[in-house]
Structure formats: structure tokens, C-alpha cells
Design a protein that fits this description.
Chain lengths: ~240, ~110
């Protein structure tokens, strides 16, 4: 389905992203709580959450700071957690690369797993959406996530408290990420990519600095692309013959 | 925590700049130039490759159970994947996944 206006695209992105708030809200809160417990002041916590604005990396950094790890090691580890976003950035180029510089900077600053994954699925499904509506969809899909992340970090830091273990909050991230990937498995290469990535993700989980995950993902997308090439080559041959 | 205030702010600044540069990288530098078809063919699979690689260890060895595999979580992950694949709906997949998780946690303790 295509949109009629950028506003419609923005609102659609916003609506699609709403289910992710069940992750963003409690994790924002959690970051505020653990950062306070680690000894950070409210200004530093908000500095983290507004300037870095990357959940998993922030939590990694604060946990390491609590153990008094050397600052450069904390920095390297946190950036390693974010390195997957270089792959996100590359894969957005065919869809969003032609946007004006200021828009690309805004989209880079506001790059979350959630709006990235939703946008990629949408853009692949509807290749005819014009650029302005793609940008609008992407920004719509982060328009709830980013403010909620910042607001609930603040509340976690100021109000404090505990998240009951019965909620099994640790598993909200896996469930929402699986839930965004599964509907996107439209073709055999997509399924192969997800399968190879999962298996290698497990096999390589022990590698330091998150490299296992990056290698697993890279191998998986090479496998999928190669399979796609062979499948289309086969089809072309049949069509010609 | 024994960091000086300036050290904390230097760390925040380093993470902020580094994270932005990672996110901006290709989108910023390549911009509107056309990528060769073989590169595009690879990039198309980025989300379905990165997220499963990220999630698989979290499913198999959850931090909440001290890294012990947990039947409730494995079931919930499988149901999320299956229901998402069948319904093609993010919301349905999350609902089925969370439902399974809480039901299984309740049954299995």
C-alpha cells in the first residue's frame, strides 16, 4: 500500500512503531535507574540519553562504569555494540541516500533498531514510495520511540524503583525483534539469511567486542545474496530457453 | 564508580560522536549515488541478518536465568517467529509471543 502524502506516511510509521513502546518505555526507565545506582548525576544521565541516544550501548557503558573499567575500554565496548548500525546505514542508502544532507543527519541521529527495521520492511514491500514519504515514514517510526526513551530515562533517574522480575523484561527485546523479522521473511533468501544468522550468532557468541554478531550477520547476508543471484539466474535461463 | 566528572563527560562526548559517525557513515558519505546491483543485493538482507544474529544468543542464554537455557523463553521465541511468519503482523507476533512467555512462565514456574 502506498501513501498519498508525507503526513500519511509519517502517521503510518508512528502507528507501526507503537508496539515497540513496550520495550522502549521499561528499558528507558531501567537505564535511568541503573545509571543513578551507578552514581551518575541527572545531568550526566540526560547527557547520555539525549546525545548518545542508543539504548543497548548506554546500558553496556553504565554497567562497565559500575565496575570501574578504564574509560577507553568502556568507549570501545559501547561503540562495538553500535557497530551494527554501520550496516543499517549502508542498507538505507538505496532508499534514503538521495535525501538532503540535513535530513540524512537527522535520520542518522535518530537511528534505532525499531524504526530502521520497520522502514526497511516497508521500503522493500512498497518500492514505489517517493523519497519524501520514505523519509516521513522513517521519522514517523521514531517519533514515539525517541521521546519515550528520553522521558522514561528521566523518570527512571528521578523516581527510581524496580521492575519486577515476573515481567521478564529481558525477553521483551528478543520478542519484538523476532516479531519484526518474521513477517519480513518473504522469500527463500530471506529465510536463509535469518537461519544462517541465528545459527552463526550462537556459534560465534563467545567472540569479544560483539564481533560474533557482526560476522554472523555478514556471512548470512552473503549467503542470502548468493542464493538470490542463483535463483534469478536460473529463472532467466529458463525464460530464455 | 571512581571517574572524574570530566572523564564521564569525555566518555559521553566520545560515545555521542562515535555513535553518530557510525550511524551517519554510509548514508552520509555515499548519499544519492547509485550503488552497484550486487551491493544492493547484499544490503537488502541486512535487517533479516543482523536482528536474528543479535537475538539468537539472548534466546538461548538469557541473562535473567544466569545464562541457563529456559524452556519458557525458547517456546515464546518460536511462537513469536511462527505467528509473525503466518500472520505477517508485528502486533500479532508480539501478542502471541508475550502470551506464550507469560503462560509458560506461569506453568513452568
Amino acid at each position: 500500500m502506498n501513501f498519498t502524502t508525507p503526513l500519511a506516511a509519517f502517521l503510518s510509521g508512528m502507528r507501526s512503531s507503537a508496539p515497540f513502546l513496550i520495550v522502549v518505555v521499561p528499558f528507558g526507565f531501567l537505564f535511568g535507574v541503573i545509571a543513578t545506582e551507578a552514581g551518575l548525576g541527572i545531568r550526566e544521565i540526560m547527557g547520555f540519553t539525549v546525545l548518545v541516544i542508543a539504548g543497548a550501548a548506554q546500558i553496556t557503558a553504565v554497567q562497565m562504569m559500575q565496575d570501574n573499567a578504564p574509560a577507553l575500554i568502556v568507549l570501545a565496548s559501547a561503540l562495538a555494540v553500535n557497530l551494527r548500525m554501520a550496516m543499517y546505514s549502508a542498507s538505507l542508502v538505496p532508499y534514503l541516500g538521495a535525501a538532503p544532507m540535513w535530513q540524512r543527519m537527522a535520520m542518522a541521529y535518530l537511528m534505532f533498531d525499531q524504526n530502521y527495521a520497520l522502514s526497511m520492511v516497508k521500503f522493500e514491500e512498497c518500492p514505489d514510495i517517493p523519497l519524501s514519504q520514505r523519509v516521513a515514514y522513517y521519522m514517523g517510526a521514531v517519533s514515539l520511540v525517541a521521546p519515550c526513551w528520553i522521558t522514561f530515562t528521566y523518570l527512571g533517574a528521578v523516581v527510581g524503583g524496580q521492575i519486577p522480575p515476573e515481567i521478564a523484561l529481558d525477553f521483551a527485546v528478543p520478542i519484538t525483534f523476532i516479531a519484526v523479522v518474521a513477517p519480513a521473511l518473504r522469500t527463500l533468501p530471506h529465510v536463509v539469511a535469518a537461519f544462517v544468522a541465528s545459527v552463526l550468532g550462537l556459534v560465534l557468541a563467545g567472540l569479544p567486542y560483539n564481533t560474533g554478531m557482526l560476522v554472523a550477520a555478514a556471512v548470512a547476508l552473503v549467503c542470502a545474496a548468493e542464493l538470490e543471484r542463483r535463483l534469478t539466474a536460473g529463472k532467466t535461463r529458463r525464460a530464455v530457453g | 564508580m571512581t571517574y572524574a566528572t570530566w572523564e564521564i563527560w569525555a566518555l559521553i562526548a566520545g560515545m555521542a560522536v562515535g555513535t553518530f559517525l557510525i550511524r551517519f557513515s554510509f548514508l552520509g558519505l555515499i548519499g544519492g549515488r547509485e550503488l552497484p546491483p550486487w551491493v544492493q543485493r547484499h544490503l537488502r538482507y541486512t535487517p533479516v541478518a543482523v536482528l536474528p544474529a543479535l537475538v539468537a544468543p539472548l534466546v538461548a542464554w538469557p541473562e535473567a536465568t544466569g545464562g541457563q537455557p529456559d524452556l519458557a523463553r525458547i517456546l515464546a521465541a518460536l511462537v513469536t517467529a511462527a505467528s509473525g511468519y503466518i500472520t505477517r503482523s508485528l502486533l500479532a507476533a508480539i501478542a502471541c509471543g508475550l502470551g506464550t512467555l507469560y503462560f509458560a512462565l506461569y506453568l513452568l514456574g
